[in-house]
Amino acid sequence: MSVENKNVIEEYEKDKENFKNFTEHKTATFNANSLRRLVLSELSYKGAFKYNRIFGFTRNQIVSMTQYPERYPNHIIRLSRYMYLKSGYYKRLIDYFANSAILNWTIDTEIKQDKMFTTNPKTFRKNYINYTTQVNKFKLDNRVTDIFKRLFIDDACFGFVTENDIDASIFLLEPDFCKIEKLTNGSIYQFSVNRSLIDVNVFKTLPEELQILIEQSKEVSLDNRVMIPYENSFCIKYNDDFTYLYPCFFSLISELLNIDDIKDLVKAKSEADAYKLIYFKIPTNDEDQISMGDELISKFVEMACAILPERFGVIPSPMDLQLIESKSTISDDKNKVEQAVDNYYGEAGVSKALISSASSGSELKLSMKVDSSDIYRIYRQIEAWVDLQMKLRGHIYNDYQFVYRILPTTIFDVDDYVDRRLKLAQTSLPIKEELLSAIGVNTAKMLGNSFTEQIFKEDIFDKWEVLKTSYTTAGDNSEGGAPMKDETEISKTTENTHDNDGNDPDNRV
After folding, report:
1. Separation of alpha carbons 66 and 58, rounded Å
2. Which end of the chain is more exposed for a tag (fewer CB within 10 A), N or C?
3. Confidence category of residue 347, pLDDT binned at 50, 70, 90
4. pTM for the structure as a whole
């Protein structure tokens, strides 16, 4: 194995280790250059990358999508989904962020007027329980991972809400036939579906309410658009500063092809290093004339070719041969590409920390906070959607208002959040519900568990006993405390204390 091939293999293993450390939270950020090399190698191995194309799209087409995403929303989503299925690294990167979200929610009460303090307690209790029950019907905490995956893959999550007296459900729709139409209050999206783009088989899988809505729209809508009412609409978008779809990691896909030329150079160099040449010296006489016939020479050449590996060549010659090797400039080419990538991120306004590695534990923790803050931004959108749904369902009060709030926690920082809230709760601050929510006991569970404990308090909970262990139970009949010493073990000082009753404060000098 040549030195160059060895360096390529070492770089590949180093790239894998870099990405593994990021996904296992050992480093704060991933190296974008390493990720591109890994994904491109992976796609090439699986046959997904052929003839300078990914999923049939050329380099120029992908660059054009990046420059004008509003023109190619469907192509962008198709390519992003394809990468999620084909590239384990692209998938793990999305899962890293999507799986970090946890919906620990609670219900706050905001005062509107001073009449709140004279509110009938029974009325307040009834309204509070009804509000909590309605919020709990959405079960968003069970769908949070599905929602966030859609956000990172498609940039938006479209859903149709159905509800009955027992529960409510959100049927997630494909973005292929959905389009954002309106933005209300700065954070509430309303979308439409294009019935002409819905396949017959897909139509059969839609909720019955949506099927009826689409059929009824044929009589009033001439452009195939079907507006989804706010009470049935669920739409959250990652990039909330524009309405067209553009996944947050799509720029990584467009940059993958920038190192294709480098990969070709590496392959050409590897093939050249692997090729070996066997040289046969043809005997000559004193007058430098070949002294062996062609038939005999060809037989020896054929014998050698039959037993040698494919990448070995055989050449007979009466002259002495010299193999001239050229030095590869592949490292220089890599540096040029990496510099181009750095310039791209700089022009895009992305922090340099995204393509560097953390050098300390504090930097790692700070980076996780930055990642978490991006998740918190999505929480605020979900809160706004729930607030609208509750108002549409009549949960509006004159003197006070209940507010659905998602705690600013992810899997990275929830333990720290619990510790901070526990210290505040010990100072009698009214955050007990928030503390319970942080450990996964939301307001609905808290009310149910508290009532259950009161009902079964005497029958069950009061009869619970502490487990008997060596720490709580003595091995003999002693009443506890330190064992008494034998008279011979008592020191002179202790004996004087006993005689003078020195443990009595009145007898101390």
Report:
1. 13
2. C
3. very low
4. 0.69
